[in-house]
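Record type: ASSEMBLY
Status: queued
Input:
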Amino acid sequence: MTHAIEIKDLHKHFGDNEVLKGIDVTVEPGQVVCVIGPSGSGKSTLLRCVNLLEQPTRGQVRVQGVDVTDPDVDIDAVRRHIGMVFQQFNLFPHMTALQNVMIAQQRVLRRGKRAAEVVARENLDKVGVIDKCDAFPAQLSGGQQQRVAIARALAMNPDLMLFDEPTSALDPELVGDVLAVMRKLAEEGMTMLVVTHEMGFAREVADRVVFMDGGVIVEDGPPAQVIGDPRHERTRSFLSRVLHPED
Amino acid sequence: MTAEPGKARLSPRKKQRISRGVQYALLVAIVVGVVLYADWPSLAQNFTKLDVAEKALPELFTIALRNTMIYAVGGFVLSFVFGLLLALMRLSTVGPYRWISTIYIEIFRGLPALLIFLMITFLPLALPGFEVPGGTFGQGILGLGLIGSAYQAEVFRAGLQAVPKGQTEAARSLGMSAFRAQLTVVIPQAIRIVIPPTTNQFVSLLKDSSLVFFLGVSGQYVELAKFGNDLASQYANATPILVAGVTYLIVTIPLGYLASRLEHRKGTRR
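Status: finished
Output:
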Protein backbone atom coordinates (compact mmCIF):
# COMPACT_ATOMS: atom_id res chain seq x y z
CA MET A 1 0.00 0.00 0.00
CA THR A 2 1.36 3.45 -0.86
CA HIS A 3 1.82 5.91 1.95
CA ALA A 4 -0.28 9.08 1.87
CA ILE A 5 2.85 11.09 2.61
CA GLU A 6 6.37 9.77 2.77
CA ILE A 7 9.17 12.20 3.63
CA LYS A 8 12.79 11.04 3.57
CA ASP A 9 15.85 12.94 4.72
CA LEU A 10 14.22 16.31 4.00
CA HIS A 11 16.49 19.34 4.25
CA LYS A 12 15.52 22.96 3.72
CA HIS A 13 17.83 25.96 3.85
CA PHE A 14 16.88 29.61 3.60
CA GLY A 15 20.24 31.06 2.66
CA ASP A 16 22.57 30.08 5.50
CA ASN A 17 19.66 29.30 7.77
CA GLU A 18 19.10 25.55 7.96
CA VAL A 19 15.45 25.16 8.91
CA LEU A 20 14.99 21.43 8.31
CA LYS A 21 17.92 19.14 9.03
CA GLY A 22 16.91 15.73 7.79
CA ILE A 23 13.26 14.91 8.43
CA ASP A 24 11.71 11.46 8.03
CA VAL A 25 7.95 11.13 8.44
CA THR A 26 5.30 8.93 6.93
CA VAL A 27 1.56 9.42 7.09
CA GLU A 28 -0.70 6.49 6.21
CA PRO A 29 -4.07 6.96 4.50
CA GLY A 30 -6.73 7.87 7.03
CA GLN A 31 -4.23 8.85 9.68
CA VAL A 32 -4.23 12.12 11.59
CA VAL A 33 -0.72 13.26 12.44
CA CYS A 34 -0.17 16.37 14.57
CA VAL A 35 3.14 18.20 14.47
CA ILE A 36 3.95 20.14 17.61
CA GLY A 37 7.00 22.07 18.73
CA PRO A 38 8.31 25.52 19.63
CA SER A 39 8.05 28.35 17.09
CA GLY A 40 10.94 28.37 14.65
CA SER A 41 11.33 24.60 14.89
CA GLY A 42 10.46 24.15 11.19
CA LYS A 43 6.94 22.73 11.58
CA SER A 44 5.33 25.03 9.04
CA THR A 45 8.21 24.68 6.61
CA LEU A 46 7.84 20.90 6.78
CA LEU A 47 4.15 21.20 5.97
CA ARG A 48 4.79 23.63 3.12
CA CYS A 49 7.32 21.26 1.58
CA VAL A 50 4.59 18.64 1.19
CA ASN A 51 2.72 20.64 -1.46
CA LEU A 52 5.84 22.39 -2.64
CA LEU A 53 4.96 25.90 -1.44
CA GLU A 54 8.59 25.59 -0.34
CA GLN A 55 11.10 23.88 -2.57
CA PRO A 56 13.09 21.34 -0.51
CA THR A 57 16.84 21.80 -0.65
CA ARG A 58 17.48 18.06 -0.45
CA GLY A 59 15.59 14.85 0.22
CA GLN A 60 12.41 13.26 -0.97
CA VAL A 61 8.74 14.09 -0.52
CA ARG A 62 6.31 11.51 -1.88
CA VAL A 63 2.58 12.16 -1.90
CA GLN A 64 0.59 9.02 -2.72
CA GLY A 65 3.72 7.58 -4.24
CA VAL A 66 4.47 10.61 -6.45
CA ASP A 67 7.78 12.35 -5.83
CA VAL A 68 6.72 16.00 -5.77
CA THR A 69 10.31 17.25 -6.05
CA ASP A 70 10.71 15.58 -9.45
CA PRO A 71 10.87 18.43 -12.01
CA ASP A 72 8.78 16.35 -14.43
CA VAL A 73 5.85 16.13 -12.06
CA ASP A 74 2.86 18.40 -12.77
CA ILE A 75 2.73 20.07 -9.38
CA ASP A 76 -0.65 21.68 -10.10
CA ALA A 77 -2.12 18.21 -10.60
CA VAL A 78 -0.58 16.97 -7.34
CA ARG A 79 -1.86 19.98 -5.40
CA ARG A 80 -5.41 19.29 -6.58
CA HIS A 81 -5.37 16.25 -4.29
CA ILE A 82 -3.93 18.13 -1.30
CA GLY A 83 -6.14 20.55 0.60
CA MET A 84 -4.35 23.26 2.54
CA VAL A 85 -5.61 25.45 5.36
CA PHE A 86 -3.54 28.46 6.42
CA GLN A 87 -3.05 30.25 9.69
CA GLN A 88 -4.22 33.52 8.10
CA PHE A 89 -7.15 31.85 6.25
CA ASN A 90 -6.15 33.50 2.94
CA LEU A 91 -9.70 33.72 1.66
CA PHE A 92 -10.04 35.73 -1.54
CA PRO A 93 -11.36 39.07 -0.24
CA HIS A 94 -12.96 40.12 -3.53
CA MET A 95 -15.27 37.10 -3.58
CA THR A 96 -18.18 36.01 -1.39
CA ALA A 97 -17.87 32.90 0.75
CA LEU A 98 -19.76 30.92 -1.89
CA GLN A 99 -17.54 32.21 -4.72
CA ASN A 100 -14.45 31.40 -2.66
CA VAL A 101 -15.55 27.78 -2.49
CA MET A 102 -16.65 27.66 -6.15
CA ILE A 103 -13.80 29.35 -7.99
CA ALA A 104 -11.20 26.58 -7.98
CA GLN A 105 -13.82 23.96 -8.76
CA GLN A 106 -14.74 25.95 -11.85
CA ARG A 107 -11.28 27.04 -12.96
CA VAL A 108 -9.26 23.97 -11.97
CA LEU A 109 -11.66 21.03 -12.02
CA ARG A 110 -13.71 22.60 -14.84
CA ARG A 111 -16.96 21.93 -13.04
CA GLY A 112 -19.97 23.78 -14.35
CA LYS A 113 -21.38 26.65 -12.33
CA ARG A 114 -24.39 24.68 -11.13
CA ALA A 115 -22.37 21.66 -10.08
CA ALA A 116 -19.78 23.84 -8.36
CA GLU A 117 -22.47 25.68 -6.43
CA VAL A 118 -24.07 22.43 -5.23
CA VAL A 119 -20.70 21.15 -3.97
CA ALA A 120 -19.90 24.55 -2.43
CA ARG A 121 -23.18 24.67 -0.52
CA GLU A 122 -22.74 21.09 0.70
CA ASN A 123 -19.32 21.92 2.12
CA LEU A 124 -20.32 25.27 3.59
CA ASP A 125 -23.18 23.44 5.30
CA LYS A 126 -20.81 20.80 6.59
CA VAL A 127 -18.58 23.38 8.28
CA GLY A 128 -21.60 25.26 9.64
CA VAL A 129 -21.47 28.54 7.70
CA ILE A 130 -24.15 27.90 5.07
CA ASP A 131 -25.95 31.05 6.27
CA LYS A 132 -22.90 33.15 5.31
CA CYS A 133 -22.83 32.20 1.61
CA ASP A 134 -23.21 35.74 0.33
CA ALA A 135 -20.96 37.42 2.89
CA PHE A 136 -17.54 38.73 1.94
CA PRO A 137 -14.61 37.53 4.06
CA ALA A 138 -14.27 40.92 5.77
CA GLN A 139 -17.83 40.52 7.08
CA LEU A 140 -17.02 37.19 8.76
CA SER A 141 -15.40 36.40 12.09
CA GLY A 142 -12.04 34.66 12.08
CA GLY A 143 -13.65 31.37 12.99
CA GLN A 144 -16.17 31.66 10.17
CA GLN A 145 -13.43 32.63 7.71
CA GLN A 146 -11.35 29.63 8.66
CA ARG A 147 -14.31 27.31 8.25
CA VAL A 148 -15.01 28.76 4.80
CA ALA A 149 -11.34 28.13 4.02
CA ILE A 150 -11.74 24.50 5.08
CA ALA A 151 -14.85 24.20 2.90
CA ARG A 152 -12.90 25.70 0.00
CA ALA A 153 -10.26 23.00 0.34
CA LEU A 154 -12.82 20.19 0.82
CA ALA A 155 -14.74 21.20 -2.30
CA MET A 156 -11.80 19.96 -4.38
CA ASN A 157 -12.32 16.44 -2.95
CA PRO A 158 -8.76 16.24 -1.64
CA ASP A 159 -7.21 12.92 -0.63
CA LEU A 160 -5.37 14.57 2.23
CA MET A 161 -5.44 17.85 4.11
CA LEU A 162 -2.64 20.02 5.45
CA PHE A 163 -3.42 22.38 8.33
CA ASP A 164 -0.88 25.08 9.14
CA GLU A 165 -1.70 26.32 12.66
CA PRO A 166 -5.37 26.73 11.70
CA THR A 167 -6.45 28.18 15.05
CA SER A 168 -3.44 30.32 15.96
CA ALA A 169 -4.89 33.54 14.51
CA LEU A 170 -8.29 33.10 16.16
CA ASP A 171 -9.78 34.70 19.24
CA PRO A 172 -9.88 32.03 21.97
CA GLU A 173 -13.67 31.72 21.96
CA LEU A 174 -13.69 30.90 18.22
CA VAL A 175 -11.12 28.12 18.34
CA GLY A 176 -13.65 25.47 19.36
CA ASP A 177 -15.81 25.77 16.23
CA VAL A 178 -12.83 25.22 13.94
CA LEU A 179 -11.49 22.30 16.00
CA ALA A 180 -14.94 20.70 15.96
CA VAL A 181 -14.95 20.77 12.16
CA MET A 182 -11.46 19.25 12.06
CA ARG A 183 -12.51 16.57 14.52
CA LYS A 184 -15.46 15.68 12.31
CA LEU A 185 -13.16 15.42 9.30
CA ALA A 186 -10.85 13.12 11.21
CA GLU A 187 -13.77 10.89 12.20
CA GLU A 188 -14.78 10.63 8.55
CA GLY A 189 -11.36 9.17 7.84
CA MET A 190 -9.67 12.15 6.18
CA THR A 191 -5.88 11.93 6.06
CA MET A 192 -4.60 14.97 7.93
CA LEU A 193 -1.22 16.49 8.70
CA VAL A 194 -1.79 19.22 11.28
CA VAL A 195 0.69 21.74 12.67
CA THR A 196 -0.89 22.92 15.89
CA HIS A 197 -0.46 24.28 19.39
CA GLU A 198 -3.75 22.75 20.53
CA MET A 199 -2.53 19.97 22.80
CA GLY A 200 -6.04 18.83 23.68
CA PHE A 201 -6.86 18.31 20.01
CA ALA A 202 -3.57 16.50 19.39
CA ARG A 203 -4.08 14.21 22.37
CA GLU A 204 -7.68 13.29 21.53
CA VAL A 205 -7.75 13.25 17.74
CA ALA A 206 -4.28 12.43 16.48
CA ASP A 207 -3.15 8.90 15.67
CA ARG A 208 0.41 10.10 16.01
CA VAL A 209 2.13 13.15 17.38
CA VAL A 210 5.44 14.39 16.04
CA PHE A 211 7.50 16.71 18.23
CA MET A 212 9.95 18.90 16.33
CA ASP A 213 12.68 21.14 17.69
CA GLY A 214 15.54 22.90 15.91
CA GLY A 215 14.78 21.40 12.51
CA VAL A 216 14.77 17.76 13.58
CA ILE A 217 12.14 15.34 14.81
CA VAL A 218 12.77 14.66 18.47
CA GLU A 219 9.91 12.29 19.11
CA ASP A 220 7.30 10.54 16.98
CA GLY A 221 4.65 8.27 18.43
CA PRO A 222 1.08 7.91 19.68
CA PRO A 223 -0.20 10.93 21.63
CA ALA A 224 -0.40 8.95 24.87
CA GLN A 225 3.35 8.51 24.63
CA VAL A 226 4.61 11.80 23.14
CA ILE A 227 2.27 14.06 25.12
CA GLY A 228 1.40 11.74 28.00
CA ASP A 229 4.77 10.22 28.72
CA PRO A 230 7.51 11.94 26.71
CA ARG A 231 10.90 10.24 26.69
CA HIS A 232 13.03 13.22 25.79
CA GLU A 233 13.91 16.08 28.05
CA ARG A 234 13.28 18.61 25.24
CA THR A 235 9.76 17.31 24.74
CA ARG A 236 9.08 17.41 28.46
CA SER A 237 10.27 20.99 28.87
CA PHE A 238 8.27 22.13 25.80
CA LEU A 239 5.10 20.45 27.05
CA SER A 240 5.45 21.83 30.53
CA ARG A 241 5.84 25.34 29.09
CA VAL A 242 2.78 24.88 26.87
CA LEU A 243 0.56 23.13 29.39
CA HIS A 244 1.55 25.17 32.45
CA PRO A 245 2.70 28.54 31.11
CA GLU A 246 2.43 30.25 34.52
CA ASP A 247 4.84 27.99 36.40
CA MET B 1 15.65 91.54 35.25
CA THR B 2 14.60 88.02 36.04
CA ALA B 3 11.10 86.89 35.36
CA GLU B 4 9.33 85.08 38.11
CA PRO B 5 8.83 81.37 37.47
CA GLY B 6 5.54 80.71 35.69
CA LYS B 7 5.29 84.35 34.72
CA ALA B 8 7.26 84.63 31.47
CA ARG B 9 7.11 88.07 29.91
CA LEU B 10 5.06 86.64 27.05
CA SER B 11 3.16 83.40 27.49
CA PRO B 12 3.29 81.02 24.50
CA ARG B 13 -0.38 81.64 23.89
CA LYS B 14 0.12 85.39 23.76
CA LYS B 15 3.06 84.97 21.40
CA GLN B 16 0.96 82.84 19.09
CA ARG B 17 -1.82 85.43 19.05
CA ILE B 18 0.57 88.21 18.11
CA SER B 19 2.23 86.15 15.39
CA ARG B 20 -1.12 85.29 13.90
CA GLY B 21 -2.19 88.94 13.93
CA VAL B 22 0.96 89.88 12.01
CA GLN B 23 0.25 87.21 9.40
CA TYR B 24 -3.32 88.43 8.86
CA ALA B 25 -2.15 92.00 8.51
CA LEU B 26 0.42 90.98 5.91
CA LEU B 27 -2.17 89.02 3.91
CA VAL B 28 -4.59 91.94 3.91
CA ALA B 29 -1.80 94.27 2.78
CA ILE B 30 -0.95 91.98 -0.16
CA VAL B 31 -4.59 91.65 -1.26
CA VAL B 32 -5.13 95.41 -1.05
CA GLY B 33 -1.92 95.98 -3.01
CA VAL B 34 -3.01 93.63 -5.80
CA VAL B 35 -6.49 95.14 -5.96
CA LEU B 36 -5.13 98.68 -6.19
CA TYR B 37 -2.33 97.81 -8.61
CA ALA B 38 -4.31 95.64 -11.06
CA ASP B 39 -5.88 97.26 -14.09
CA TRP B 40 -9.35 95.76 -13.63
CA PRO B 41 -11.02 97.15 -16.75
CA SER B 42 -8.15 95.89 -18.90
CA LEU B 43 -8.21 92.48 -17.22
CA ALA B 44 -11.95 92.21 -17.74
CA GLN B 45 -11.54 93.32 -21.34
CA ASN B 46 -8.88 90.67 -22.03
CA PHE B 47 -9.99 87.67 -20.01
CA THR B 48 -13.73 87.80 -19.44
CA LYS B 49 -15.22 89.26 -22.56
CA LEU B 50 -18.61 87.57 -22.82
CA ASP B 51 -19.21 88.15 -26.52
CA VAL B 52 -15.87 86.46 -27.30
CA ALA B 53 -16.69 83.65 -24.91
CA GLU B 54 -19.95 83.10 -26.77
CA LYS B 55 -18.01 82.61 -29.99
CA ALA B 56 -16.51 79.49 -28.45
CA LEU B 57 -19.90 77.80 -28.37
CA PRO B 58 -20.90 75.20 -29.33
CA GLU B 59 -17.57 74.00 -30.74
CA LEU B 60 -16.01 74.24 -27.28
CA PHE B 61 -17.97 71.14 -26.34
CA THR B 62 -18.80 69.47 -29.65
CA ILE B 63 -15.25 69.54 -30.97
CA ALA B 64 -12.67 70.68 -28.42
CA LEU B 65 -13.83 68.88 -25.26
CA ARG B 66 -14.88 65.87 -27.29
CA ASN B 67 -11.41 65.60 -28.85
CA THR B 68 -9.68 66.13 -25.51
CA MET B 69 -11.70 63.22 -24.15
CA ILE B 70 -10.86 61.06 -27.20
CA TYR B 71 -7.13 61.71 -26.79
CA ALA B 72 -7.25 61.21 -23.02
CA VAL B 73 -9.47 58.12 -22.97
CA GLY B 74 -7.59 56.55 -25.88
CA GLY B 75 -4.23 57.20 -24.25
CA PHE B 76 -5.59 55.94 -20.94
CA VAL B 77 -6.85 52.64 -22.39
CA LEU B 78 -3.50 52.12 -24.08
CA SER B 79 -1.57 52.89 -20.91
CA PHE B 80 -3.85 50.69 -18.79
CA VAL B 81 -3.31 47.61 -20.94
CA PHE B 82 0.33 48.25 -21.71
CA GLY B 83 1.04 49.37 -18.15
CA LEU B 84 -0.37 46.14 -16.70
CA LEU B 85 1.78 44.14 -19.11
CA LEU B 86 4.88 46.15 -18.17
CA ALA B 87 4.16 45.71 -14.45
CA LEU B 88 3.78 41.94 -14.83
CA MET B 89 7.03 41.87 -16.81
CA ARG B 90 8.77 43.93 -14.17
CA LEU B 91 7.74 41.45 -11.47
CA SER B 92 8.51 38.43 -13.65
CA THR B 93 11.07 35.81 -12.73
CA VAL B 94 12.31 35.96 -16.32
CA GLY B 95 15.32 38.31 -16.35
CA PRO B 96 15.01 39.78 -19.85
CA TYR B 97 11.34 40.68 -19.23
CA ARG B 98 12.40 42.60 -16.12
CA TRP B 99 15.18 44.41 -17.96
CA ILE B 100 13.06 45.43 -20.95
CA SER B 101 10.30 46.69 -18.71
CA THR B 102 12.68 48.57 -16.39
CA ILE B 103 14.44 50.26 -19.31
CA TYR B 104 11.15 51.28 -20.88
CA ILE B 105 9.76 52.67 -17.63
CA GLU B 106 12.94 54.60 -16.81
CA ILE B 107 13.14 56.15 -20.29
CA PHE B 108 9.53 57.21 -20.62
CA ARG B 109 9.25 58.53 -17.08
CA GLY B 110 12.52 60.40 -17.46
CA LEU B 111 11.75 62.20 -20.71
CA PRO B 112 9.61 65.34 -20.91
CA ALA B 113 6.23 64.54 -22.45
CA LEU B 114 6.71 67.37 -24.93
CA LEU B 115 9.87 65.76 -26.31
CA ILE B 116 8.01 62.52 -26.96
CA PHE B 117 5.31 64.34 -28.90
CA LEU B 118 7.94 66.15 -30.95
CA MET B 119 9.57 62.80 -31.72
CA ILE B 120 6.27 61.37 -32.88
CA THR B 121 5.99 64.13 -35.47
CA PHE B 122 9.36 62.96 -36.83
CA LEU B 123 8.40 59.27 -36.92
CA PRO B 124 7.54 59.32 -40.66
CA LEU B 125 11.02 60.72 -41.36
CA ALA B 126 12.72 58.03 -39.29
CA LEU B 127 10.61 55.20 -40.66
CA PRO B 128 9.81 56.01 -44.27
CA GLY B 129 6.42 54.77 -45.27
CA PHE B 130 5.35 54.27 -41.66
CA GLU B 131 2.20 55.92 -40.56
CA VAL B 132 0.61 55.80 -37.12
CA PRO B 133 -2.82 54.23 -37.61
CA GLY B 134 -5.69 56.57 -36.89
CA GLY B 135 -3.99 59.70 -38.23
CA THR B 136 -3.81 62.63 -35.84
CA PHE B 137 -5.95 60.89 -33.24
CA GLY B 138 -3.67 57.87 -33.50
CA GLN B 139 -0.55 59.99 -33.03
CA GLY B 140 -1.94 61.82 -30.02
CA ILE B 141 -3.20 58.62 -28.41
CA LEU B 142 0.12 56.89 -29.11
CA GLY B 143 2.09 59.71 -27.47
CA LEU B 144 -0.14 59.76 -24.38
CA GLY B 145 -0.16 55.96 -24.25
CA LEU B 146 3.64 55.71 -24.40
CA ILE B 147 4.04 58.14 -21.52
CA GLY B 148 1.04 56.97 -19.51
CA SER B 149 1.97 53.29 -19.63
CA ALA B 150 5.32 53.97 -17.97
CA TYR B 151 3.60 55.67 -15.03
CA GLN B 152 0.69 53.25 -14.97
CA ALA B 153 3.15 50.34 -14.89
CA GLU B 154 4.58 51.64 -11.62
CA VAL B 155 1.07 52.11 -10.23
CA PHE B 156 0.21 48.51 -11.13
CA ARG B 157 3.49 47.21 -9.77
CA ALA B 158 2.72 48.76 -6.38
CA GLY B 159 -0.80 47.31 -6.54
CA LEU B 160 0.36 43.81 -7.44
CA GLN B 161 2.95 43.89 -4.67
CA ALA B 162 0.32 45.03 -2.18
CA VAL B 163 -1.66 41.80 -2.63
CA PRO B 164 -0.50 39.52 0.21
CA LYS B 165 1.65 36.54 -0.76
CA GLY B 166 -0.78 34.22 1.01
CA GLN B 167 -3.32 34.93 -1.74
CA THR B 168 -1.08 33.40 -4.38
CA GLU B 169 -0.24 30.53 -2.06
CA ALA B 170 -3.92 29.79 -1.43
CA ALA B 171 -4.66 29.86 -5.15
CA ARG B 172 -1.67 27.68 -6.03
CA SER B 173 -2.47 25.13 -3.32
CA LEU B 174 -5.95 24.78 -4.85
CA GLY B 175 -4.20 23.59 -7.99
CA MET B 176 -4.27 26.82 -10.02
CA SER B 177 -1.34 27.44 -12.33
CA ALA B 178 0.79 30.53 -11.72
CA PHE B 179 -0.91 32.26 -14.64
CA ARG B 180 -4.41 31.29 -13.50
CA ALA B 181 -3.66 32.46 -9.94
CA GLN B 182 -2.53 35.87 -11.21
CA LEU B 183 -5.57 36.22 -13.45
CA THR B 184 -8.23 35.04 -11.00
CA VAL B 185 -6.90 36.10 -7.64
CA VAL B 186 -4.07 38.64 -7.76
CA ILE B 187 -4.89 40.99 -10.65
CA PRO B 188 -8.54 41.64 -9.65
CA GLN B 189 -7.37 42.62 -6.16
CA ALA B 190 -4.52 44.73 -7.53
CA ILE B 191 -6.90 46.63 -9.81
CA ARG B 192 -9.13 47.46 -6.84
CA ILE B 193 -6.12 48.73 -4.94
CA VAL B 194 -4.95 50.96 -7.80
CA ILE B 195 -8.30 52.57 -8.66
CA PRO B 196 -7.56 55.85 -6.81
CA PRO B 197 -4.03 56.40 -8.20
CA THR B 198 -5.28 55.32 -11.63
CA THR B 199 -7.95 58.02 -11.51
CA ASN B 200 -5.18 60.53 -10.85
CA GLN B 201 -3.28 59.07 -13.80
CA PHE B 202 -6.27 59.73 -16.02
CA VAL B 203 -6.45 63.35 -14.85
CA SER B 204 -2.79 63.77 -15.63
CA LEU B 205 -3.26 62.28 -19.13
CA LEU B 206 -6.22 64.58 -19.67
CA LYS B 207 -3.99 67.58 -18.99
CA ASP B 208 -1.11 66.18 -21.05
CA SER B 209 -3.48 65.82 -23.99
CA SER B 210 -2.90 69.55 -24.46
CA LEU B 211 0.53 68.59 -25.85
CA VAL B 212 -1.26 67.33 -28.96
CA PHE B 213 -0.88 71.04 -29.80
CA PHE B 214 2.65 70.25 -30.94
CA LEU B 215 1.54 67.62 -33.43
CA GLY B 216 0.35 70.56 -35.50
CA VAL B 217 -3.33 69.64 -35.40
CA SER B 218 -6.08 71.72 -36.92
CA GLY B 219 -9.76 71.75 -37.82
CA GLN B 220 -11.55 68.62 -36.72
CA TYR B 221 -8.69 67.46 -34.50
CA VAL B 222 -8.14 70.40 -32.15
CA GLU B 223 -8.48 69.77 -28.45
CA LEU B 224 -9.23 72.30 -25.71
CA ALA B 225 -5.86 74.06 -25.41
CA LYS B 226 -5.33 74.48 -29.13
CA PHE B 227 -8.97 75.49 -29.58
CA GLY B 228 -8.65 78.17 -26.93
CA ASN B 229 -5.39 79.43 -28.34
CA ASP B 230 -6.72 79.62 -31.94
CA LEU B 231 -9.77 81.62 -30.90
CA ALA B 232 -7.62 83.87 -28.74
CA SER B 233 -5.40 84.68 -31.70
CA GLN B 234 -8.38 85.25 -33.94
CA TYR B 235 -9.98 87.81 -31.60
CA ALA B 236 -6.74 89.06 -30.06
CA ASN B 237 -8.33 88.36 -26.69
CA ALA B 238 -7.41 85.89 -23.95
CA THR B 239 -10.98 85.02 -22.94
CA PRO B 240 -11.11 81.74 -24.94
CA ILE B 241 -8.03 80.48 -23.07
CA LEU B 242 -9.76 81.15 -19.76
CA VAL B 243 -12.86 79.41 -21.09
CA ALA B 244 -10.77 76.37 -22.10
CA GLY B 245 -9.15 76.38 -18.66
CA VAL B 246 -12.52 76.39 -16.91
CA THR B 247 -13.63 73.51 -19.14
CA TYR B 248 -10.59 71.46 -18.04
CA LEU B 249 -11.45 72.19 -14.41
CA ILE B 250 -15.05 71.09 -14.90
CA VAL B 251 -13.69 67.63 -15.70
CA THR B 252 -10.55 67.41 -13.56
CA ILE B 253 -11.86 68.70 -10.23
CA PRO B 254 -14.76 66.20 -9.94
CA LEU B 255 -12.37 63.42 -10.96
CA GLY B 256 -9.96 64.51 -8.25
CA TYR B 257 -12.77 64.35 -5.69
CA LEU B 258 -13.82 60.97 -7.02
CA ALA B 259 -10.27 59.68 -6.57
CA SER B 260 -10.10 60.78 -2.95
CA ARG B 261 -13.58 59.37 -2.28
CA LEU B 262 -12.48 56.01 -3.70
CA GLU B 263 -9.36 56.19 -1.59
CA HIS B 264 -11.40 56.56 1.58
CA ARG B 265 -13.76 53.78 0.59
CA LYS B 266 -10.85 51.44 0.03
CA GLY B 267 -10.70 48.75 2.66
CA THR B 268 -14.39 48.36 3.38
CA ARG B 269 -14.37 44.99 1.72
CA ARG B 270 -11.11 43.73 3.07
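Annotation: Chain B has a mean pLDDT of 88.
Annotation: The two ends of chain B are 64 Å apart (CA to CA).
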